[in-house]
Structures are given as C-alpha cells and as structure tokens.
C-alpha cells in the first residue's frame, strides 16, 4: 500500500513537470515563429496558462487526497495494533496434553516446550489416564516445566457387547470430560488448546493459536480453532502460502482450541464415546465453524491402540507439517470473520470457471486463477474426491474441510473448489 502511494505521488510529479515543460516549450516556439498578431498569441498563451493552472490545481487536489488517505490509514493501523496488543496481553492459554500409556508422549512434550515462547502464557497441563507407570515416569522428568494431573476414575466402563472392541473410545471420552472439567472449573482457565500425546507440532503452533484467538472470541459463528487440515497432504496444499487460513464446517480436532463458554454448553451432555463424531452433529455444532490452516500445524506420528492403523498408513502419515514461522499475531486476520469471508468466498467460487476432473488432471486449462468442479450428488462428490486424493467421507453430511458445501484445495499450481450449486440449501444428513 505504502509503496503504491509513494509511487503514485512520484509518478504524478513527473507527469506534472512534463506537462509544464511541454507547455512552456510549445509557447516559446509559437512566440518566436511566424508573423501573426501578437495579441492573438498573447491570448493563446493566457489560455495555455489557465489550462495549466487548472491542471496544477487538479494535481494538488490529488496530492491532498493521497495524503489524507495515508493519514487515515495510519490511524486505523495504530488503532488495530493497540487493540490487538491489548487482546494478546495477559491472555493465558494452557495446552492440555492427553496422555495414557504411550511413553512417546515425550516427543510431543519436547516440541511444545521447545516452541513455546513463554511458559507463563502457555502453561502445559498433562492429563494422564490409564495409570501407566512408565509413562508417568517419563512425564515426571519434565519437573516444573509442566503440570501433571491424573484421572482418578479408573473404574471399568460398561460397554455394550457389540462395542467391546471400541472400549478405548469410551475411555477417551471419559478422560476428555474429566480433563476439561479440571482445566475450566478447577484451574479456571478461559481457553484451552487440546493436544493428544501422538502429535508433532509446528514451530509457529503457539503463534497460530494466539493470532487466531481474537477471532474465536469475536466471531459467534466460530467455535474452534484447529491446527489440522484434513486434506493437508503434499500435492494438495500450496506450500508457498503457509499463512493461508480458512473456515470449515467440518470439526477437524487434532490440536484445537475452545473456550470455557463452549465447554459449559457441552459438558453436561458430553457423550460416553465417539465424542468427535458427536460434536459434529447439528445439535452440537449449531452451524458454527472452525478455523483451519492451509498447512497443518500438527501431524500425528503414529497411533497404536484405539485408532485405525490403516487410516494412518493410507492417509495421516502424508499430511505435511508446516515448517515456516508465520507471524500471525502481527497479521490482519479480519478476512476470516464470517461476513467478510462468506461474501468473498461465494463471489470467488461462483465466478470461477467450471472444469472437469480430466481437464484439471491433464493440466489443460488455458488460463490462470481458481477453477471449480461441480458436484450435485453424494456419489459424484465421492468419485471426484477419490480421483483427486481428497478425503471422501462425511460426518453429519459435512465433507472434510467443507464450508457451505465447498471443499477448497490446491492442485497443480491453482486453487480448486469442489463445490455444489450456488443455490445450495445446506448439508444432507443422509450423506455418509
Ligand atoms: C464435568 O462437569 C459437569 C458440570 O459440573 C458435570 O455435569 C459432568 O458430569 C462432569 N464430567 C466429568 C467427566 O466429570
Ligand atoms: C484488515 O482486513 C479487513 C478485511 O479484509 C479490511 O477491511 C481492513 O481494512 C484491514 N485493516 C487494515 C488495517 O489493513
């Protein structure tokens, strides 16, 4: 902006000087040349000067406008900066690490401790379930760098016979419920970032959550900030744009921030198992969205136990973890507020050219810029998603990373929208 304005002023000045030069030289030539009536010439010169005067006035007016705009921008800049600093100052955001029986929790803790800019601003609470002594020993080695709490309820859980093999999910839900109660009601924090013991984190993990925190507080249509892009595989993300963020209707989890007010809403009806799919149901989500990054700020380094090993091998291990530090707290993230974001997204998506999967794959599109692939049915969505290597599943009718039915990703150097019709009416709960 500043460079453009300076350039504009310089450019105008050059033009102005040129006009004066040309005018003066012209007049001189006409005056010394020929034998016409001197009066006539003087008249012409007068006209010329009047014209010049008008031009100068115009130029000076322009200059005033530019200077005024610049002054105003400076005021806005300043206000926003002061405002933002106030919001960040004194904001304590604990990180709650959920551990059980994996000694590899140290890998996650090492990174959290290495990257956190300030231990007072980001206290680390490790909540351990499972009473696994070896893991407790590992955690205890961190001393006062972390706070260890232990889930006291180790009673056996009554699981329906059909779900015996999913018992782990029941234990996890119970642990989450207890640990979040501790964080919000016992320690009285206002916000928390939840991390599981099998996550690597990016160097700007804390900066990301701190920078997006004001959005979570200000925008009532946001209910979480997530570090995870479900389609964040190499080849589907723009590696040159680690600063890019999106809204998503699909709750991503895997390193996410929530506020106490959301927990107050959820805690009394917290489910006995499968909490992540439960939270994605319309009764819980209530049309609220999360922020997610283009390039994930977490990555799971392998899950043994409850989660599906195949899912890790086929998908999770290809997610790219961001390596560049993006100064989110110093950036203007207002474009993510619902009204601005929705307008801009709808405008760009439905102005973009429609292409087929084949055209996209063959890279046979003659122009630059974003393109759109349309889907009308669940099967069409799944087919295209599979071909492109996108996640093709739905939860409560929402595709992964979907926002208003639109799945945005990066492919062969351009932004692609897998999008429904413009008159889209909402998610179909029956799509699964
Ligand atoms: C958490 O606290 C809420 C509110 O007091 C309570 O209803 C819920 O049972 C608690 N959950 C757990 C797992 O302790
Ligand atoms: C921040 O971004 C918003 C939305 O894109 C814009 O309207 C506003 O002018 C920006 N503020 C500054 C200080 O650049």
Automatic annotation (TrEMBL):
Its EC number is 2.4.1.101. Its cofactor is Mn(2+). One of its GO terms (biological process) is protein N-linked glycosylation. It is a single-pass type II membrane protein. It is an enzyme of class 2 (transferase). One of its GO terms (cellular component) is perinuclear region of cytoplasm. It holds the Pfam family GNT-I. It catalyses: N(4)-(alpha-D-Man-(1->3)-[alpha-D-Man-(1->3)-[alpha-D-Man-(1->6)]-alpha-D-Man-(1->6)]-beta-D-Man-(1->4)-beta-D-GlcNAc-(1->4)-beta-D-GlcNAc)-L-asparaginyl-[protein] (N-glucan mannose isomer 5A1,2) + UDP-N-acetyl-alpha-D-glucosamine = N(4)-{beta-D-GlcNAc-(1->2)-alpha-D-Man-(1->3)-[alpha-D-Man-(1->3)-[alpha-D-Man-(1->6)]-alpha-D-Man-(1->6)]-beta-D-Man-(1->4)-beta-D-GlcNAc-(1->4)-beta-D-GlcNAc}-L-asparaginyl-[protein] + UDP + H(+). InterPro entries: Glyco_trans_13 (IPR004139), Glycosyltransferase_13 (IPR052261), Nucleotide-diphossugar_trans (IPR029044). Initiates complex N-linked carbohydrate formation. Essential for the conversion of high-mannose to hybrid and complex N-glycans. Its main location: cytoplasm. Keywords: Cytoplasm, Disulfide bond, Glycosyltransferase, Golgi apparatus, Manganese, Membrane, Metal-binding, Signal-anchor, Transferase, Transmembrane, Transmembrane helix. Signal peptide: none annotated. It is found in: Cytoplasm, Perinuclear region; Golgi apparatus membrane. GO terms for molecular function: alpha-1,3-mannosylglycoprotein 2-beta-N-acetylglucosaminyltransferase activity; manganese ion binding. The cofactor is mostly bound to the substrate. Belongs to the glycosyltransferase 13 family. Pathway: Protein modification; protein glycosylation. This is Alpha-1,3-mannosyl-glycoprotein 2-beta-N-acetylglucosaminyltransferase. It comes from the Eukaryota. The keyword Transmembrane applies.
